[in-house]
Structure formats: C-alpha cells, structure tokens
Amino acid sequence: MKTLCITNNVEELPKLAFFLDEIADEDGLDTSLVFNLNLALEEAMTNVVMYAYPDQQDMPITLDYTKEGDTLVFCLRDQGVAFDPTTGGDVDITLSAEDRPIGGLGIFLVKQIMTDVTYQRIGDCNVLTMTKQIEG
C-alpha cells in the first residue's frame, strides 16, 4: 500500500501528480492511464479540500493506493462533513451549459474514468473507494 497525506489546502493538490508518477514508475502504468487517473482523483480530492471541512483549516485527507491483480484501488478518506457524492443522479450532458444545473459534473467525470466508485461512512470518516481495472 502507498499513501498520500495532505491537508484541506488547494496548494497541496499538486502532490497528487507526484504520487501518481511514483505509482506509475513502480507499477509500469502507461501515461494515458496516469493522466486519466490524475483527472479523476484530482476532481475527487478537490471536492474534499473545498467542501469537507467548512471553516476548518489544516484538516487531514488521505489517499491510499493498492494494486490487486489487474485492479488499481484508491481509497480517499476524510473526517469532514458526511457526504456521499455517488447518490446524485447522473448529469444530463446533452443539455447546454446554460440549461444544465450547477454541480455534478465532477463525480460524473470520476465515474466515467474509474471502473467502480463507492462511498461509505465509517464512524466519523468519509471513505470514497475508486477502482480502475487495467489490462494485464
């Protein structure tokens, strides 16, 4: 397992790219996969940074990574406000930007990139698990 620990500060988000580069080197992941993973994980982490801890600073956010066979598993954890991003309905991307309600595009993007996205509230912790099936 590999873990990235940051706080809810947008200036710490670039650490994700370095974390993914290390994973790519260790597990031989291709560049396009890493690009897509970065897009999805940055979206998920940005939401936690921006909304999980209203009025609190320097609060912990962790991203755990494991590889289980041909599946990459990312577990995003925070102790912020309980929020299940997976419960919102799918975004209607056929609507124009003016007609589409605000919000929801980020988790839509995450769901499009990742193979599976699940949420659990375990004690006082939000746990968003995102998996990506890769070619052997």
Task: Give a short account of the largest sheet.
Answer: 5 strands, antiparallel
- Total number of beta strands: 5
Q: Which regions are unreliable across 5 or more consecutive residues at pLDDT < 50? A: 99-104
Strand proportion: 25-35%
Backbone shape? globular
Termini, distance in Å?
19 Å
> What is the strand arrangement across the widest sheet?
1-2-3-5-4
**What average pLDDT do the residues reach?**
89
SSE string, helix = H, strand = E?
Answer: EHHEEHEE
**SSE-based structural type:** alpha+beta
Assign a percent range to the helix content.
Answer: 25-40%
The count of helical stretches stands at 3
Question: Rounded to an integer, what's the Rg over CA atoms?
Answer: 15 Å
Protein traits:
single chain; alpha+beta; five-stranded antiparallel beta sheet; 5 strands
Q: What does this 3D model show about the protein?
A:
Strand 2 (60-68) and strand 3 (71-78) form a beta hairpin. The chain has helices spanning 15-27, 31-51, 105-113, and strands at 2-7, 60-68, 71-78, 116-122, 125-133. Strands 1-2-3-5-4 form a five-stranded antiparallel sheet. It is globular. It has three helices and five strands; from the N terminus they run βααββαββ. Helix content is 32%, strand content 29%. Mean pLDDT is 89; it is low at 99-104.
